[in-house]
Amino acid sequence: MNPADSNSTSVPLLRNQNLIPNRRQPTQWKHLAKPCLILIAILVLSAPVAYSLSELIMVARHKSPAVSNLIELLIPSSKTSRTTTKTNDSTMTKLVQKSDENFSPPAAFCGKRIVGYFAEFENTALTRKQLRMLTHIVFLFAFPKNGTITFGGESSSQKFEEMRRNVRKASSTLKVMISIGGQYNSGEFSGLVSNETSRNLFVNSIATFVRDYDIDGVDIFWTWPKHSDENNYLMFIRELRYAFTELQKKLNRKETFVISLVISRNVNHLSKLVEFSNFVDFINIYSFNSYLYQVGPDSPLYGGGSRNVDEIMKYYICKTGQPSKFNIIVSFHATYWEGAELPLRDDSDDIFKDQNSAKGGFAVRWRELLQQKWDMSNIKFHNLTKTSYMWIPGPPTRFMTLEDEKSLREKNRYVADHNIGGITMWTIDQDDGDHTLLKVVSSAELCTGDRRNEIKYKCD
């Protein structure tokens, strides 16, 4: 018997396709030898070309958001499918599992951080699309009460829990964090870090919170420490890092817990920034609201003296020598004034005007601009400051400063060109339903730098 005949179901099919060699026709193999040799030669010669082409594709992916999006559509590498077939008598069931656990935004491929604040005080729901465009999500806020971390109420706690569950279901790589403090909840910081006993209470409460809620780290949002607080603040951060290291060992956790700080655009707030940077993963620069008590652009890249992003980032990066340690915070809301004088004229460096009798500034979420009948065709771009604005001649006159796609692309380019670590958004739930602004920030445009932690400023 021919060995192939032992399989009564497969052999006839094979024979019909002439795939089983006939022992009485050995000359058939001779006809296959030459094509096989040609095929092997083609494969050997094409390997270097294929490798070079793959390298070019990866470079193009980092350089061009259009190429990156095309590749994601054609090659959904972030998703894995597994099909299991079950046979039960005459029924067959296919079980298909799809996982988004390893999905990362385009900018993450070159190591950039895309950090989104998610606010308890906003009313929009978190979406899977948003999560796919982030590397870190940070809930606003928890705060210390008598040295113990707590929420502002039951609704805040529930919203945080819902956010955490949604993230864990959607991704295994997205970092979940809690921001502690904030503009209205930093009152206890100074007293809590002032002595060893209260610091230990505070640190242990944070470590317990992180463990119990199964999150990846904390964002310390102290607005703003005084000079007399700085030494105690540094000891607190150092002790928090030690507590997190011990917790990591206890839990057999592979990754370190994340600590980030928010610091002011006022470069005189922290003089020991180098020491702080030794114990934190990254530092968010609160670089918007630059107009203070005047009328002007919210976050100008250039112009207006020392209050622009370029001057602020130059100071911090030259001081620490670590550009990749920093994130620029951008806002997803606009600010406007009524009865104001136009501050942006003829690319003059004088980009701020006294408010005088003007009313404002009033905040408007990006997602509410159309609802409030703002005509988006009125948005103009100021070339010196690289910011977007609206000017309504009135009466009454209205000046609005805002981030849009164009101004955010300028900030993307700035972050990439200066090897800065990433961008933090205040807040992702102020974006529209299409996630217009978040898409820009998370794009591969952030990957046009050289990836090295090299200083691109001329430091004094």
TrEMBL record:
Transmembrane segments: 32-53
GO MF, one annotated term: chitin binding
InterPro entries linked to this entry: Chitinase_II/V-like_cat (IPR011583), GH (IPR017853), Glyco_hydro18_cat (IPR001223)
Keywords: Membrane, Transmembrane, Transmembrane helix
Signal peptide: none
A single GO BP: carbohydrate metabolic process
Record's keyword annotation contains 4Fe-4S: no
Domain GH18: 112-448
Pfam family, one: Glyco_hydro_18
PANTHER family referenced in this protein's UniProt entry, alphabetically: CHITINASE, GH18 DOMAIN-CONTAINING PROTEIN
Protein name: GH18 domain-containing protein
Species per Swiss-Prot/TrEMBL record: Caenorhabditis elegans
Gene it is expressed from: chil-9
